[in-house]
Amino acid sequence: MHTLFQIRRIPPPITVALLWLLVGCASQRPPEGGPPDTDPPYIIRTVPENRIVRFDGTQVSFVFNEYVQRQSFQDALHVSPLPETPPEIKWSGRRVTLRFAEDLLENRTYVITIGTNVRDLRAGNEMTETMHLAFSTGDSLDNGTFSGTVHGEPRSGVSLFAYLIDEERADTLDPAEDRPDYLVQSGQDGAFQFFNVLPGRYRVFAIRDKNNTLRYNAEIDEIGIPVHDVVVEDSTEITAPLRFHLHTEDTTRPAIQRVEALNERLVRVKFNETIYPQPPPSRFITITDSSSGERHFVIAVTAPPEDRYAWDLLLGHEMMERPFLLVIDSLEDGVGNALITDTMPLSFTGSVRPDTAMPLLISRYPEPNTVNVPPDSSFSLRFDRPVNLDEAFALRDSSDNIITLQMRRPDALRVDLLHPPLMEEAVYTFCVDLRQVRDSLTAQNVGDSTECITFTSGRPGEFGTLTGVVRTEDSTNTVIVRVRNVAAESGIRTAQTNSTRQFQFEKLPEGRYIIDAYIDRNDNNRYDFGKTFPLIRPEPYGIHPDTLRVRARWETNDIIVPLPVPDAETPAR
Length: 573
Known about the structure:
mainly beta, Immunoglobulin-like
């Protein structure tokens, strides 16, 4: 079972810590000896029984199957609604009793939640599911209910904060400031369920409440932001499950730490974190001679491999040794925090140091001695500055036969080379004549020799294919599908669906894969988790319920990834 929690409309705020001030002095020690304890603790009996009505008692008891750690029980305990005076906690062996110091409210449904944080005393095993005890002081119980799942590891012990909202509170609700009306915790499989809640509209956040404060602490607690609210009616039928994708929210805006002219054409800008788009478009950047007002145009932006978070701006003509002004706008970090521009423009001193740097080849595929290169793959090279190329490339097989190459230039820094399908499991030599690769600005050659590498082609049969469809009602936005090998560190591969929401991944190594999808509503090619306050909802997200096995020379097809796109309010009956 799972549970819920309510604490609104309490006259003075009461900290949860006060619940534990009055603790009985009964001894708690398990019997010694016996076999190792590997079983999780659980509650075998409650007084009163669950869902009793017309309750008029003054205390509630829980009996565990074994001794449990007191502090873990205290951390996992939630009472809804919270009495003005916290209940006294008494221990007697495996029994724990809550004694209310005041009369309970009339005609109210109370719910006491024991979350999965509870650990047994001997081995530290945790409860596997949240337990809840509901009872009413009136003739009936509130029966509103809804459920969902938390994605993220570990899945258990995540607190689900539910807030009863109206039109006004929907705009002002801040989980960092407001305590929830109801609370449950997720079980080991990430599932959770709210029971016995008042009818109404709810906004729910999934929070790994590390300090048990009942409030969200940004950049400390992981959080899942709701794609939609739920409307609960007084019924026991459950629909419209919620799904949460946990992350640590980044609320710090990116900033420029340093601007430095390295030579007469090169300006390095250092940020405090990764910024997007990558590379920063030159149209977002303005460099002006503060004396003459002349603008110096940026013709290329590259990432220096030796300086993290830095970008090099290559200018179309030389600077002088005098003050220049830099303005950069429209950049953001990976979660959408906008670049701090309050200090713009930034001043730096130009340089007259000659631009003598030769273009560098900063990345290439294939690398020297690479094996299992797919026979139908393409080659790529990326330089650190714009280059001109003539007949600079040659591809030969082991018999010294020349393989025709077709060059494409996606941008000023990258070169792609297409070739006919290669023979399987064959050795090839790929050469670059550095004398034919020249700097676009200075006309300097990259080198004075020819550089060659060897590689070995693979077999197409060593790879598998995944094909399927994303099931969603969204028909206009971009849908991006992601696959990740659960046992490898090769990163995530992505693909867009076609107009019928179908997708295909080819050349996947054998293994087991996780596949998910999201709707890229802002077309930034990244999943956006949303923000808590002011509320920005995350992009709709879906995941295939099982890991998928990819086998060599096989196509795993008919995969269906469910991706619901609910309205802001979804009924839950």
